[in-house]
């Protein structure tokens, strides 16, 4: 109502309110590498399409004549009251979309009152992001590295920086088959972007120095970069301060990128290993990337405090089920024992409503915050997040529910 009212007096939104227009304009404003990195799904994009199709399988049935003057969209999670059922999903390398990256995310999310899940591949060290967040609730998303000491160091830093939960992403032991990124030869990492969390870590710094002292032959074995690639890197490095051709020229940044590539993928993880993490932190541990009900059961057996149903925005397994299609089975098995969060494909409040109706406790906004960031920096992020909250409030009003708890399975029907 505020937006309509302000509009009468000439107010214009900072970024498009329509998610489709926002998406189109944001990608049009990005460099080809940024567009590819943010937009791409795995393979031919089937899973990304399935994410959207899954929402089309459900329809909301509005109820009339219910007093909706007092509405409350707050929820409780891990003993804390959150203003709304929205969090921002962890998205790495946000500096591709805007040079201020996660600092702008933090400013925007704080202004909108939305908690942030800080990515292990965030563009700035978590301490700086948390300083921008002030009192705003934040969690830390962990990619479980090959180096246990590094994992422990990241967890310790997250605790010290005031993160109140750990989200362990399980679905990215390796990066998915992202064809557009492959065609562009994965320039973001060639330029050392998205490793600020590591390069600011004392354990990682030690690993890099060890590599500089004992260089492997890897670097020499690699073909020299094509002249075209060097030219475009030079151009891009002017666009994004902080990333420079040094990655190709000086031993230290190059060693940092190589160390990152070495420690990132961890294929030997099994459920038993969660006990190791459990012993090292008292923060609630959520696992992100659950799709199968049996995995939800195993996660509970191994003591997790929460589950995030997600397929990483369709970026990992090509041909996988839509994330919302996986939600009911997981909710069934979990049966209220721990919170079940949801992401992958949420583009408007109706999507959030359907996920909540199917049993999600909260939902994470993914790519849309990056689109807002690309077009409007912190203001763009703030507006995108406020839009979700405002639209959900209106949606609740018009469907006759006054609290998140009232968004039950009875509010939707199969399409
Ligand atoms: C991601 N995602 C992700 N997840 C994670 O746990 N750590 C990360 O660093 C990233 N990085 C990342 C980068 C980009 C560009 C995207 C699009 C996604 C996955 C993210 O948290 C979330 O699961 C998806 O974004 C949800 O899908 P939609 O709604 O964005 O399509």
UniProtKB/TrEMBL annotation:
SUPFAM superfamilies per the UniProt record, alphabetical: FMN-linked oxidoreductases
Pfam families associated with the record: FMN_dh (PF01070)
UniProt keywords, alphabetically: Flavoprotein, FMN, Monooxygenase, Oxidoreductase
GO molecular function annotation: FMN binding; monooxygenase activity
Domain FMN hydroxy acid dehydrogenase: 11-415
Keyword Nucleotide-binding attached: no
Gene3D superfamilies: Aldolase class I (3.20.20.70)
Superkingdom of origin: Bacteria
Annotated active site: 312
Listed InterPro entries: Aldolase_TIM, Alpha-hydoxy_acid_DH_FMN, FMN-dep_DH, FMN_HAD, FMN_hydac_DH_AS
Membership in a protein family: Belongs to the FMN-dependent alpha-hydroxy acid dehydrogenase family.
Official protein name in the record: Lactate 2-monooxygenase
Organism listed in the record: Luteipulveratus mongoliensis
